[in-house]
Amino acid sequence: MTDIAKKISTFITDNLLLGRTVDLVGTSSFLDAGIIDSTGVLELVQFLEETWGLSVKDEEMVPENLDSLVRLESFVKKKLGK
Amino acid sequence: MIGTLKHRGPDGRGVHVDGPCGLAHARLAILDLEGGAQPMGIESDDFVITFNGEIFNYLELRDELEKKHGRRFASRSDTETILHAYAVWGDRCVERMNGQWSFALWDRKRGRLFCARDRIGVRPFFWTVHEGRFVFGSEVKAIFAYPGVRRALALEGLGEVFTFWCTIAPRTVWEGISELPPGHTLVVDASRRVEVRRYWQLDYTVDDSRDDATCAGELMDLLVDAARIRLRADVPVGAYVSGGIDSSVIAGVVKRHTDTPLRTFSVAFEDPDYDESSFQQDVVGFLGTEHSQVVASADRIGGTFPEMAWHMETPVVRTAPAPLYVLAGLVRKSGFKVVLTGEGSDEMLGGYDIFKEAKIRRFWGREPASLARPKLLRRLYPYMKSLQAQPDAYLRAFFHVRGEDLESPFFSHLPRWRLTQQLKGFLSKDAKAALARHDPLAELRARLPAEYAKWHPFAQAQYLESTILLPGYILSSQGDRPAMGNSIEGRYPFLDARLMDWAAKLPPHQKMRGLDEKSLLKRAARNLVPPRVLERPKQPYRAPDAASFIDPASGKSRHEYVDEVLAYDRVAKGGIFDPDAVQKLVEKARSGSVVGVRDNMAFVAAVSTQLVAERFLEGFESGLPASRQAIP
Predict the structure, then answer these.
(1) At what angle do helices A3-11 and A40-52 cross, to 10 degrees?
(2) What is the model's pTM?
(3) In this structure, which of A14, B20, B228, B408 has its CB flanked by the most CB atoms within 10 Å?
């Protein structure tokens, strides 16, 4: 797992899963798996912005960017210009 | 046993033992203060009853029983009316009664015990069979006081709470303890067989024969009479004013249509997100009532919660019962024993947001690719900041209409139940394993009435709300328990038997016109309620949840017991929750980040479950310890 994926994974485990055991790598949709609740996405975006100094626009807050570990990692990389 | 229920009846106590049957009663004296003592018998105690509640149409029934059937009454009480009604009409006597009750009636000659609960579940009734003996009570704690009755949590009961917010009778959160479902009778016959039978249910077969103006007139006539018979009492009657339409209508009806001097009561919140005082003041000014208000601070809600848990006897996912406990305390201190409230209007006349939500989702489901239709979702829940802040795509995703959902009999309630079921993720490994095969929705599906599939989707949603959350939570944890915990009786004109039967048959468009909830009630009550209250968007009654236990600003627990019951070792020892998950939730609350609905529900669920388990399992005492008295 890359450093980015690890950080995101730890955040989700500690703040959204709160200790529940879920295989994040194998989860294709956080929404369908009930990992992201009605406000979880805002917590997640706040974490991305604070951790990597990003600015996430409203139109970027879509499941295509945020709904799995793979999508999140590539979204962060894209924002960082990697 | 009866000593555990002193709060329900501090005015007197009685016991009647006759052969195999023992009845006990704790009395809250409201009608016939001199002659209404219980257990009460007639015909040399051939019929003896212990009864909790009120039969509001007892004068009409009494008149009929005297004139047509030659019955002779010895008291002025409604209790005696039930005895004569049973003597004349047998088990079907309940069909003639309009009120809120649970009772057990000993029929000596036939050696049978006849028990019944009101139609919609205002008054509680629990029972078990212990070593061949039928043991019952208004609260579970009375049954636990019977020697030898086992006290253990039923995981399937918790599974229901973590789905529906409450259990569905006959299931309770206690192993071996059943709740008599609303609208049912129970008979223990001479051979000690127990038989439970339904005598009433809501029927949503539509009668579309009258126009709005006619229906609005009928509704007002029903409401006026429902309130009038609920003012029958030999003690003064007050009313709650929440600042919403329903309680305002009730207060308005009493003020304008009766000559009863009205005293009103309300609860205010420190947090402006929950507070409705300005609307309450509008109503009070409009009606000119003498009014008293109490403020429920987050600190006070948290401080009251352990006592509330003792009264509720079940885990809950919201703190909302606690402010009502504080409010009932104010009523009691003001010298009142009876209050009218607006409860039941949202269920019967179509007021809840969940009905609106279902309507929008169904509208969207017809054109799933539409980006415009889900925009209506923004009109829902204007009071929920966290939800309003969500990006469009996520709001859509959360309320997402799956193809198979449109076919589900539970379409309206799936988002709420799926969200609540996420709380099961906080359970311990063992509890999860035990619940792995338990499917509350499949069980519920098997119990739906045969006519359900023929009803309009709006009526199906009403049925679910009226038969699950209303008796299981609204009338219990937010109704009977906080009120009776303070020796106060709530009365609900919107749950009048005639009004419920009438409202069920209204066509859905008369209840919710477009997205305008309770439109018929608003039309009927135009002159009874201040315009600002009539026009305001609906704001459901809510209270701060996790923030009532941990101050999000300082990160500190507001009360010592919070740290105690959520301590890692205590949670691990309890075995219900995963201690790591609870610990992380507590840390999150200390950092002020418990803002979402799920996390708030999880926090309240953890605190309430721990409190209830500790209070009723290991440390069960039949009274409330002095250390857990409410903060004054």
Answers:
(1) 140
(2) 0.93
(3) B228
